[in-house]
Amino acid sequence: MLIVQKYGGSSLKSANHLKNVARKVQRTVEQGHQVVVVVSAMGDNTDGLLDLAEDLAQTPSARELDQLLSTGETQSSALMAMTLEQAGIPAKSFSGRQAGILTSYDYGKARIEQVDPKELRNALAVGITPVVAGFQGVTRAGDVATLGRGGSDLTAIAIANALGADRCEIYSDVAGVYTADPRIIPSATPLDVLNYDEMLELASQGAQVLQTQAVEFAKGQQVPIYARSTFNDEPGTVIHQGESIEKPAVTAIALNRHIAKIGLLGVPDAPGVAALIFGELAQSGINVELIIQAMSHNQLNDIAFTIEEQDVKRAEPIVEDCLRKLGGSSVAVDTHVAKVSAIGSGMVGRPGVAARVFKALSSGDINIQMIGTSEIKISCIIDRQDAERAMTLIHEEFGLGQSAEMIED
Amino acid sequence: MLIVQKYGGSSLKSANHLKNVARKVQRTVEQGHQVVVVVSAMGDNTDGLLDLAEDLAQTPSARELDQLLSTGETQSSALMAMTLEQAGIPAKSFSGRQAGILTSYDYGKARIEQVDPKELRNALAVGITPVVAGFQGVTRAGDVATLGRGGSDLTAIAIANALGADRCEIYSDVAGVYTADPRIIPSATPLDVLNYDEMLELASQGAQVLQTQAVEFAKGQQVPIYARSTFNDEPGTVIHQGESIEKPAVTAIALNRHIAKIGLLGVPDAPGVAALIFGELAQSGINVELIIQAMSHNQLNDIAFTIEEQDVKRAEPIVEDCLRKLGGSSVAVDTHVAKVSAIGSGMVGRPGVAARVFKALSSGDINIQMIGTSEIKISCIIDRQDAERAMTLIHEEFGLGQSAEMIED
Fold first, then answer.
1. B339 falls within a domain
2. Which residues, in sequence order, are CB contacts of B99 under 8 Å at separation 6+?
């Protein structure tokens, strides 16, 4: 088989961690498989670089930040290649550019536009195990661009996709995808199987196991993903194109604490207002998720929406500018919110699931500020300090964290 | 003027050091000059990466080491670009590849084959200050290669050369080129002026101020080099095409402690023996400097030569292999040697200078193991523990470290 194995930062914290990963790769190679390894930066290397950058510039240029941060993954790819060679496995490191990963120009959250796996194929053909630096690619102009939070997953799956790999294994310090983040909900249990759509909703709702675009790539080419722990041999969770057989209404709960809510108060109720605001934000590459527009008196509207918290600094002047143009009264930025989502393909065609979510929250006196839904997901924006309590309440309401047999009773 | 300014690792140790360098660049830009900045890795960043690599692999692959070590300079270039932008100077970082630096395939000690400064020119044309990562380039195959010890000097001067810059300023923690290393000889004094040939001999003899190939580049295009301290405004030393006017016989003393002596004992005295040994070493990219061949009895020779200490691990198996082929008796590796050199274009046509060097050493009971000379240089291989004493004796013999007026008396 051709297997892509991705190892996250917590699996690469120290020289001993690197040696442990090399042994896992070696075992796979010795079983007769071809392996492409994708690595994140070592431990909290990236945070250290980010701190230094912020010490030097209030808002460092996004291009320079990417040039800087990408070095973390380049380092761990070279170190991993050395470690493999020391273990007798011929290996070669590849930067994103060397691995043929072409990205969009959105520094800090670039999308992969194209993967040309020629050099990787050449290496595999002569028995060399490629070790690819995750999280990065290069624009058509030759500048380094990074793929944003969880970008190394995307690198792994995009490469698996381009090479037509038999599977993509994502290794981290957790043993797969859980019904909820086990650091928050101790009774959460690992799931054996998920389908791509459920994983997509989980990923986009802030579950830090797999990145959204990564899952989309896997779904497109039907590459099965195995989410596993680096530190044991448990089977972990398989994400594939499984049919939705009889299933619990809610499979897992996701939490995203890295969002912010922005409100424009008292803007005129006129055509084109929303288009102006969201057009300007889109042009700056800022992703807007939930939107609420509420008519108030005197034909004035309040518009509120959520964005990633990291985009607030860039969004604020844009929104202020829109307010001046539109003649509204004020801008309110709230970074004390969180989004809790209940996800499950079993909720399709089952009425009443949303009602149970809302009931669970109200039983804990938790105020719901905004609501968003899809076919297989219900998201609520709530106060950040209520986040963990909200997860626990929904987790209990749907009997997650109990054994599968119990749920089916 | 178009000025290339290179800042070494000791000038970039911390966030505050970076801000200090940014102020120096800013001052130059505000005087109306165009500046290209070249940076080394921050402080002892490179040593940290090297330690990690050696922890993971006994002899890490040279390609992987280069991929790893080059990230240090890439980081400092991005951080410096951010720092300049924060100071209001539009700036952009360039990796060696992005700056158009094409190198040979000799990983770890690559030579610059070509500089295509198109992207740097484009940046300068629109008022952007380029910040180039020193020490690195890219081979025609697209692999990163580093330029070896002092390689950032080479980057700076090669870029100055390619851009036709008016001057190249090399900033470090010493105020120019001294008559000898002031950390060893406290009475050493900075030189105002040197010509390229003197600097070449100094550089090749291990004076750590400027790298040899860098000076060769500068000599080729007659780019004046200003060696200065980052931490004061002293004029430093100018290296240019100066005529050798009436000069002291010896201008400066250099010390190289990073060499090793290898001896092949009892090899047959037959044609082709030296060609075999030095041919094999050359093919592995190992540079041999001094060679001594001494006839012993029974038509057997002893051959001894010096190489860089870092090449010993690679050279040993090659030499052992030659010995087996030739049928010699044994190989002796001595890493406890040093090379002390007296340099001065004033020694041309002045007999007796070598005799004074030897007399100075013998006055300190220092045994000379090998001797090498050029028109303007006398080098002696001695025991490493005698190195500092040897420098002091020669420094005193030629009255260096006194004021120029005193020398001319």
1. yes
2. B115, B117, B119, B120, B130, B132, B133, B155, B159
The whole-number average pLDDT for the span A300-328 is 89
B205 reaches A (C-beta below 8 A) = no
* pLDDT at position A206: 65
Domain interval for residue A180: 2-243
The average pLDDT across A106-127 equals 94
Q: In this complex, is the C-beta atom of A318 within 8 Å of any C-beta atom belonging to chain B? A: no
- Are B73 and B36 in the same domain? yes
What percent of chain A is modeled with pLDDT above 70? Answer: 94
Question: Hunting for tokens 């624009």 — which residue is that?
Answer: A139
Q: Half-sphere exposure of residue B380, counting CA atoms within 13 Å on the CB side?
A: 25
Across the range B74-84, mean pLDDT stands at 97
Question: In the prediction, which pLDDT does B173 show?
Answer: 86
- Whether B11 maps to a domain, the answer reads yes
Residue B296 lies in a domain: yes
Instruction: Check CB contact under 8 Å for B82 and A98.
Output: no
| Residues B53 and B182 reside in one and the same domain | yes
Tell whether the model's pLDDT for residue A347 goes beyond 60. Answer: yes
Closest CA to A343 of A255, A269, A283, A409: A255
Angle in degrees, CA A384, A388, A393, rounded to 5:
120
**Distance (Å, whole) CA A254 – CA A205:** 6
pLDDT at A406: 32
B33 occurs within a structural domain: yes
CB contact under 8 A, A85 and B64: yes
Residue that terminates a domain, selected from A216, A243, A270:
A243
Q: Are residues A345 and A287 in the same domain?
A: yes
The answer to whether A199 touches A215, Cβ cutoff 8 Å, is yes
Domain co-membership, A306 together with A364: yes
Nearest CA in chain B to A65: B78
Q: Return the pLDDT at A1.
A: 95
pLDDT at residue A129 tops 70: yes
B383-397 tens-digit pLDDT = 999 999 999 999 988
Residue A224's nearest CA partner among A237, A233, A212, A213 is A237
pLDDT digits (tens, 9 = 90+) for A71-107: 999 999 999 999 999 999 999 999 999 999 999 999 9
Sheet with strand B136-138: strands edge to edge: B112-115, B101-103, B136-138, B144-146
Kindly state whether B284 is in contact with chain A, defined as any CB-CB distance less than 8 angstroms.
no
pLDDT surpasses 80 at A348: no
Which amino acid, one-letter code, is at B102?
A: L
| Separation of alpha carbons A24 and A107, rounded Å | 33
**pLDDT tens-place string over residues B291-342:** 877 666 667 778 888 999 989 999 999 999 999 988 888 899 999 999 999 9
Name the residue facing A18 among B56, B93, B98 (closest C-beta).
B56
* Contact with chain A for residue B14, Cβ under 8 A: no
CATH number for position A371: 3.30.2130.10
Provide the pLDDT for residue A90: 97
Q: Please report the pLDDT score of residue A407 as a whole number.
A: 33
| Chain B, nearest residue to A59 by Cα | B86
Residue A265 · residue A331 · CB < 8 Å: yes
Instruction: Name the domain boundary from B196, B219, B243.
Output: B243
Task: Find the CATH number of the domain harbouring A61.
Answer: 3.40.1160.10
Same domain? For B173 and B288 the reply is: no
Give the CA distances from residue B17 to residues A258, B9, B24, B76, B356, in Å, rounded to whole numbers and listed in that order.
Answer: 33, 10, 11, 11, 44
Structure-derived torsion over alpha carbons of residues B389, B394, B397, B398, reported in degrees to the nearest 10: -140
- Total number of domains constituting chain A: 2
Q: Which residues contact A312 (CB under 8 A, 6 or more apart)?
A: A260, A262, A333, A335
Predicted ipTM of the assembly: 0.72
* Claim to verify: residue A137 and residue A263 sit in the same structural domain: no
The structure tokens 């889109």 sit at A282
Same domain, A322 and A344: yes
pTM exceeding the 0.80 threshold for the entire prediction: no
**B294 with B311, same domain?**
yes
